[in-house]
From TrEMBL:
SUPFAM superfamilies, sorted: FAD-binding/transporter-associated domain-like
PROSITE patterns: FAD_PCMH
Annotated organism of origin: Coleofasciculus chthonoplastes PCC 7420
Protein name as it appears in the record: FAD binding domain protein
One GO-annotated biological process of the protein: lactate catabolic process
Domain of life per record: Bacteria
GO molecular function: D-lactate dehydrogenase (cytochrome) activity; D-lactate dehydrogenase (NAD+) activity; FAD binding
Domain FAD-binding PCMH-type: 48-221
Length: 449
């Protein structure tokens, strides 16, 4: 990367060039807007805890984004794009200082049609659903941070979430229809990507384009009911989750299975999750409740909680105890805990690893669709001791045929990809020739020579 050293640069002079665009230079605010939830990982904590930007800009229009891009290229200043900063492995943390472009002021909804929408990147997922549900639609999938997360941040740094049992992951073909991005060339321009070309910037951590607009497909908005089912045996709970995922006639949005003692970390749900029990946190279409209850009986489960669709907006959603909110709740009680992200693919593998690690790696399953099949994936809680032991745990999982999307690295390809995406690197060469966008995160760029 050819960029300006942060220490010797006149950042106040640079800030004056962003005239007309909201600019933040106050150190405490800049520090806050430099970070995400990287502290979930004890490996990332020492690597990222001192990384900060030098100033923050909050453009409201694509024209203002182009202005920011021109100034950063002119001075060869690193530029890091962020949404709400709800990621977990430093996706939006600037490794080399520079300018942080906060997209949260770009929150316009261009249009909502039957089955798809066009929005700006700063639109909050929960706020959008309130509008879309009025005409019978909602996002296909959302992270557990959906109350504060933005669609641009989710596309740039996320992978899946509530709804993935039906629609897979964000990078599956059809889950992103089109994007507009601003480049960091000598003369920045706007490029529209459609069809498979969207994968050039999908889940790229903002390393190769500033997203200014997205066209995204929607899902039918059912009357959703939240349910907790408890089980005496974890494997039975997991088998129930698989059966529900495989039940084509039962409409569902969330299948989240938690082995004891994970439910003990959910202080807001204690009356519904008795000590020693294993819990299933579920979202089911109201129209499917009767046959769903038959499935619960078949597996010997007990329904302890049910929130109607009518009461859906009241209080905390069950979704906020699932996916990586599970980790958040657990760490609020025991800060030594960390987590893994695992594709088990089969229940046999789940059972083998559950028996092998016991409470050292507490089993938390999220069912999602992969190549048309419902499969168990894990966001297990790990009782962390040393980095060496953590790597041993990861290695053992991989030796048993599980796939680990490592959450303890900020390098794009070393997390869930495992391989360099040549197309993304080539697109970066085209649109960011000086390597100014979120530098240090794309291994393919650093190693391209």
């Amino acid at each position: 990367m050819t960029s300006t050293p942060a220490q010797s640069f006149d950042w106040n002079a640079l800030a004056s060039e962003f005239a007309g665009i909201e600019t933040i230079t106050e150190p405490t605010q800049v520090a806050k807007l430099s970070l995400d939830y990287y502290h979930f990982s004890p490996v990332l904590q020492p690597l990222l805890e001192d990384k900060r930007g030098n100033l923050v800009v909050r453009p409201q229009t694509e024209a203002e984004v182009l202005q920011v891009a021109r100034i950063c290229v002119k001075h060869k200043v690193p530029l890091t794009i962020r949404g709400a900063g709800t990621g977990n492995y430093g996706q939006c943390i600037p490794l080399h200082g520079g300018v942080i472009l906060d997209t949260t002021r770009m929150n316009g909804i261009r249009w909502i049609k039957r089955g798809k929408t066009c929005v700006e990147p700063g639109v909050k997922l929960a706020a959008f659903d309130k509008q879309a549900r009025k005409i019978g639609w909602e996002w296909r999938m959302v992270p557990s941070t959906y109350r504060s997360a933005t669609i641009g941040g989710f596309i740039g740094g996320g992978s899946g979430g509530i709804g993935s049992i039906n629609y897979g992951q964000l990078r599956d073909r059809g889950n992103l229809l089109a994007v507009r991005v601003v480049t960091l060339e000598d003369e920045p321009r706007v490029i529209e990507l459609r069809g498979d070309d969207v994968q050039k910037v999908n889940h790229a951590y903002g390393t190769n384009g500033i997203i200014t607009e997205l066209e995204v497909p929607l899902a039918p908005a059912y009357a959703w009911v939240e349910v907790i089912v408890i089980f005496d045996n974890f494997i039975t709970a997991a088998q129930f989750g698989q059966a529900l995922g495989d039940a084509d006639g039962l409409v569902k949005k969330l299948i989240s299975i938690h082995a004891h003692p994970i439910p003990t970390y959910f202080s807001g749900l204690k009356q519904y999750l008795p000590d020693g029990k294993h819990g299933a946190l579920l979202t089911i279409a109201e129209s499917c409740l009767e046959p769903f209850q038959e499935l619960v009986r078949e597996y010997g489960g007990e329904i302890t909680y049910q929130k109607s669709a009518q009461d859906g907006s009241k209080g905390t959603s069950l979704a906020e105890f699932t996916w990586n909110h599970t980790t958040l709740h657990a760490r609020s009680i025991d800060g030594t805990l960390t987590y893994l992200q695992t594709f088990f693919f089969t229940l046999e593998r789940v059972e083998k690893l559950y028996d092998h690690f016991g409470d050292e790696v507490m089993m938390h399953l999220e069912f999602l669709r992969v190549n048309g099949q419902a499969i168990p994936a894990g966001l297990q809680l790990v009782r962390y001791t040393t980095e060496e032991r953590l790597n041993e745990i990861i290695r053992y999982h991989e030796e048993q045929g599980a796939f680990i999307a490592n959450p303890h690295t900020y390098i794009l390809e070393d997390g869930g990809r495992k391989t360099i995406d040549v197309e993304q690197v080539q697109f970066k060469e085209q649109v960011d020739p000086y390597g100014l966008m979120n530098p240090g995160k794309m291994r393919g760029w650093e190693e391209r020579e």
